[in-house]
Amino acid sequence: MGAPKRRLRTSCLAVVLLAITANSAFANDIDIDGQEGVASYYSDRFQGALTASGEAFDQQALTAAHPSLPFGSKVLVTRPDTGQEVEVLINDRGPFVQGRIIDLSKRAARALGMLRRGTAPVMVTLLD
């Protein structure tokens, strides 16, 4: 095998190892007591767009974007002010607005009663 192929293989391996290491560290981003902050939800203009996980975004799925939790993580999102809650699957990265901790699909936002407001205080608890 030539030097360029060896370098490419070594570079790919390094990226995979970095991703595995980072992914396991991200699971600790939310501790047993949860993470408190503000939730928002996706604009309709993202319907069908590819998420960071490679899936097409669907406003009617119970999904969400989180800055660091591994894709496929299930979280419980609770509104402390109303007691409403919804379980969602993390399949994207975001939100990219300071102070917000999770971006929800429209279906998840509806379950939390936050469609009119656009944002709501929430607690995010890792389930798995």
Quick take:
The chain has 128 residues and is an alpha/beta fold. Helices cover 23% and strands 28% of the residues.
Protein architecture, described:
The protein is an alpha/beta fold and 128 residues long. It has one domain: RlpA-like domain (Barwin-like endoglucanases, Beta Barrel). 23% of the residues lie in helices and 28% in strands. It is built from two helices and six strands, in the order H-E-E-E-E-E-H-E. The chain has helices spanning 3-26, 106-111; strands at residues 35-41, 63-65, 74-78, 85-92, 100-104, 119-126. A hairpin with a 6-residue loop joins strand 3 (74-78) and strand 4 (85-92). The longest helix has 24 residues, at 3-26. The relative contact order is 0.24. The model is unreliable at 10-28 (pLDDT under 50).
Overall tally of structural domains = 1
Low-confidence stretches: 10-28
In helices, the fraction of residues equals 10-25%
Instruction: Tell me the series of helices and strands, N- to C-terminal.
Output: HEEEEEHE
Instruction: Tell me how many strands there are.
Output: 6
Instruction: Output the number of helix runs.
Output: 2
Q: Which CATH C-level class is it?
A: Mainly Beta
Shape: globular
Topology, please?
Layout: H1 3-26, E1 35-41, E2 63-65, E3 74-78, E4 85-92, E5 100-104, H2 106-111, E6 119-126
Parallel strand pairs: 1-5, 2-4
Antiparallel strand pairs: 1-6, 2-5, 3-4, 3-6
